[in-house]
Amino acid sequence: MDFSFTPDQQLLKNSARQFLDVHCKPEFVRTMFDDPRGDSEALWKGMAQLGWLGLSLPEAAGGSGLGMVETAILLEELGRAAYPGPYLPTFLVGHALMVAGTEAQKSRWLPAIANGTARGTVAFNERDLDWNLSRFKTKARPKDGGYVLSGEKHFVAWPHVADLILVPAQTPEGVTLFLLAPAATKGCAVRMMTTMDLTNRVGRLVLKGAFLPADTVLGEPGQGAGLLDELLRRGAAGAAAEMLGAARRCLDMAVGYAKVREQFGRPIGSFQAIRHKCADMLLEVENAHSAAY
Length: 293
Description:
This protein is α+β, with helices and mostly antiparallel strands. The chain is built from eight helices and ten strands. It has helices at about 5-25, 25-35, 40-50, 70-80, 85-100, 105-115, 225-260, 270-290; strands spanning about 120, 140-145, 145-155, 165-170, 175-180, 190-195, 200-215, 215-220, 260-265, 265. Strand 6 (about 190-195) and strand 7 (about 200-215) form a beta hairpin. The radius of gyration is 21 Å and the shape is elongated.
């Protein structure tokens, strides 16, 4: 079996590398540390024009209809560039809509994601960081043909820029997924959290009697656990691809430094001890590549 990339996949990888080398340089990433939003609208629009935001979305919604491997290729390059922005969480929301969304939900959100006018994220974790869905404390109480949501979600990626947040909550039927548009929903607030990694902004989503109509339910009430499990697995694969790109960039930087840094009149890369370190790093990165893909 051939595990190498196809010519089209390699073209995607090369074009992503070229674009990010120009538009997402380290100095640009550092400027985003001090930006209140932390991401660039111009860069997001550029990614939309290249078709990246709709890479895995159906062609009818303005996407390319590609799969997880192509998404991982792009995420690897984004990780290599330390790209600051909500690409991965937006991809997960788009996938959830494709799998379980109604036609109205798809037509409302998928083209907007593909053309860059909508960003998304998933609000999964709660205060105790318990991954057991049955112990979710966020509740959704039926009322007036819709639901009233109360609770808190923690470590939500990029909630302050999200136009759509996928929120799982406990209903009488079980775990149910809701499509929450924060700008149009009263009773919800975002509180940003301070973390060490400023390329990935996170916050808390506070829900205090937020009313959501019935048409914001994604899939069937009480049937959200299966889709959440799939999203977590895809999210883990996507995060692995991002970290692979970062690891490969670290390897390239280390090898490049070993070629130019001199000691005792010779590049340090000529010393056997440094060669062994570089070889060990290469082995780890190649193993990570195989594991991620």
